[in-house]
Design a protein that fits this description.
This protein is of the alpha+beta class. It is built from 11 helices and 22 strands. Helix content is about 20%, strand content about 25%. The strands form 5 sheets. Strands 12, 13, 14, 15, 18, 19, 20, 21 and 22 form a 9-stranded antiparallel sheet that branches. Strands 5-6-10-8-9 form a 5-stranded antiparallel sheet.
């Protein structure tokens, strides 16, 4: 091992430093952690590692990023931000977070069309796992990717683009199976402002009967179900573009009440770490996420689950969960419903179907969560649920694989890109059937 590689990596006797995921619900089993500071160092790490996986901001909740070999953090790679006004794109380093990118874009005339609830997540990690925001017209964050710079299994740096790769739909959302992403090119839209209004006490009956209407009434809509409450479904967050906001938009027609502004810009029920609510207009990047980029996200000590169902069948799926809510509600810290438009990414949970993401944040009680997940999955089984790749689920591999028509194409792509299986791990074998090649 060269001096460069020794410097970039913690050896096996430092295994305790490899650490865990952001929430602490999965401890990595890797033998060492490398944090290369250049593309050349990264290429050397790849060449020297028979088994390795890329690591972003550790916001996955399961073992999707783990390996029996080397974890490679992209956080120490040089940060880049290259704006192309002519094409309306920006190319950023894979380890960049959405919050850092958005704040830089905020100084320009450009914007991202959508963001996830947390601006703290890395671009490469979010795009590789199908992370998303909300809005009936918005696809996952991965769909904004028009180009990727990747260090592949043979140690080469390659550039893949939407225009040049007929199989680009299999390369963007690849679960880390094709290489280590060092830079991402994202499509942009013209700058815009957003106001965020929160409504309380939406009745379950209104949610079931008017779900599509509610999800379609603003630029981005999130519903926070209160599964323990048999009458009120909970809160509705409406994020509206100010240049398209309709003053007549009034969720009271569905039986909800507007959250009053308690003090200054702080709306009723607003957490100090959340972005400004109460109908106060502001830059897109300070309103589309739920949490401020300069504050600690969420609570951390938790386990997350999310299942995607076809949006036209979502009311049925929610009724099925509501009917058994007494079996899991006490374990839920927060829940969220978000819409994701259909896309053409082979492994996207929204592949070719407009979807509703049913998200559940659980108490960090692994045994209890593993007990209730099969209950939730059984209730959702008639609706062909697709799990979020980076969150907990107990669906068997064949159940997951049956939901992806292009899975065989992806397996072939992975075998061509990584014939020795450097980037494979137990998660990919268990869920996608990507076997380790024989030595």
């Amino acid at each position: 091992m060269s001096n460069t590689l020794t410097t970039a990596c913690q050896e096996e006797d430092g295994m305790q430093d490899v650490g865990a995921t952001w929430s602490g619900c999965h401890t990595f089993a890797a033998q060492r952690l490398c944090a290369p500071r250049s593309i050349e160092e990264l290429q050397e790490v790849v060449a020297a590692s028979p088994r390795l996986r890329a690591l972003g901001t550790r916001h996955s909740f399961n073992d999707i990023a783990d390996t029996e070999g080397t974890l490679v953090s992209v956080q120490a790679l040089p940060e880049s931000f290259e704006l192309d006004d002519a094409s309306g794109t920006v190319t950023v380093s894979g380890g960049s977070t959405y919050g850092r990118i958005a704040s830089k874009l905020g100084e320009t005339r450009w914007a991202l069309a959508n963001m996830g609830s947390l601006p703290h997540i890395s671009v490469a990690g979010a795009c590789a796992t199908g992370t998303h925001g909300s809005g009936v017209a918005h696809r996952s964050l991965s769909s904004a990717v028009s180009g990727l710079d990747v260090v592949t299994a043979d140690g080469r740096q390659q550039r893949w683009t939407r225009e040049d790769c007929p199989d680009f739909g299999g390369r963007v959302l690849s679960l880390g199976a094709l290489g280590i992403v060092t830079a991402v090119t994202l499509d942009l839209v013209p700058d815009f402002e957003v106001r965020q209004d929160v409504w309380f006490d939406l009745p379950w009956s209104s949610l079931f009967e008017h779900l599509d209407e509610i999800m379609s009434c603003a630029y981005s809509v999130s519903i926070m179900p209160a599964w323990h409450d048999r009458q009120n479904a909970g809160k509705v967050w409406l994020k509206s573009r100010t240049d398209a906001w309709d003053p007549a938009l009034d969720a009271s027609r569905w039986g909800a009440r507007w959250a009053r502004v308690a003090d200054g810009e702080r709306a009723e029920g607003q957490n100090p770490n959340q972005t400004v609510q109460g109908g106060v207009s502001g830059p897109w990047w300070q309103r589309l996420p739920h949490f401020r980029p300069d504050a600690s996200p969420s609570r951390g000590d938790e386990i997350q689950t999310e299942y995607f169902v076809e949006r036209h069948r979502a009311p049925e799926a929610l009724r099925a969960l509501h009917a058994i809510a007494d079996r899991f509600a006490d374990l839920v810290l927060v829940s969220e419903l978000r819409s994701v438009a259909a896309d053409e990414l082979w492994l996207s949970p929204a592949y070719r179907r407009d979807s509703l993401g049913i998200h559940l944040t659980w108490r960090n009680d692994p045994d209890a969560v593993l007990t209730v997940l099969p209950v939730v999955e059984e209730a959702l089984a008639p609706f062909s649920p697709r799990p979020h790749w980076g969150k907990w689920f107990t669906l068997l591999g064949d159940q997951v694989q049956a939901q992806y028509p292009r899975l065989a194409d992806f397996r072939q792509l992975a075998e061509q890109a990584d014939p020795r299986g450097r980037f494979r791990n137990d998660f990919l074998q268990r869920t996608l059937g990507l076997e380790y090649p024989e030595s």
